[in-house]
Amino acid sequence: MAEAASISQGIAERYATALFELSKETGALKTLETDIDALKDVLAGSPDLGAMIASPVISRGDQAKAVAAIAGKMGLSPLMTNTLALMSEKRRLFALPQVLSALAGLIAEEKGEVTAEVTAATKLSAAQAKKLAETLKAKVGKTVKLNTTVDESLIGGLIVKLGSTMIDTSVKSKLASLQNAMKEVG
């Protein structure tokens, strides 16, 4: 299983690098970034699309038609549309989520940005998100893009993952620490 994951990651990185370099050469990085965000949203919102791109049962032709229709409807750039067509022709659409993630990473690196995965007990307000991004920027010296999710089981506080660093200030983890300390004493 790990081998299959590394193979699809390798495929994704090759497609992402090629698409990134072509977009960079043609000055279309902003368009590429817009396409990536749109595709991520569509994949997240449509389990059927995720199933279609991962299905080995659906023929290349049917996948190509579906991808062309979706790309046309979404107004994706010709470069992204052609890449999706090539991926469907080569039966590589299953790697699309990894391609999008790799592309987002390449673009962020190009822009000098880092992404922080933030899990909060409640939805962050715009002011809170801005303050957190500014604080993290001061810490790492780069522009920080927040990728936020809500997990009510945290009770309160945040979990911030930035690169290999994780900061857990959630009430849930504090209670777990307290529980462990009480077990040791009692």
Helix/strand/pairing category: alpha+beta
CATH superfamily of the largest domain: N-terminal domain of the delta subunit of the F1F0-ATP synthase
Number of helices: 8
Shape type? globular
Query: According to CATH, what is the class of the largest domain?
Result: Mainly Alpha
Low-confidence stretches: none
Reading the helices and strands in chain order gives HHHHHHEHEEEH
Largest sheet: 4 strands, mixed
Average pLDDT, rounded to a whole number, is 93
Structurally, how many domains make up the residues? 2
Proportion in helices? 55-70%
* Beta-strand content bin: 5-15%
CATH architecture of the largest domain: Orthogonal Bundle
Radius of gyration: 20 Å
Q: Count the strands?
A: 4
CATH topology of the largest domain: Peroxidase, domain 1
Strand order of the largest sheet: 2-1-3-4
Q: What is the terminal-to-terminal distance?
A: 43 Å
GO molecular function, one term: proton-transporting ATP synthase activity, rotational mechanism
Membrane topology: Peripheral membrane protein
Keywords: ATP synthesis, Cell inner membrane, Cell membrane, CF(1), Hydrogen ion transport, Ion transport, Membrane, Transport
Subcellular location: Cell inner membrane
What's the short story on this structure?
By secondary structure, the chain is α+β, with helices and mostly antiparallel strands. The chain is 66% helix and 13% strand.
Question: Can you offer a commentary on this structure?
Answer:
The protein is of the alpha+beta class. The protein has two domains: 2-109, N-terminal domain of the delta subunit of the F1F0-ATP synthase (Peroxidase, domain 1); 113-185, no CATH class. 66% of the residues lie in helices and 13% in strands. The protein has eight helices and four strands. A four-stranded mixed sheet has the order 2-1-3-4. A hairpin with a 2-residue loop joins strand 3 (158-162) and strand 4. The N and C termini lie far apart (43 Å).
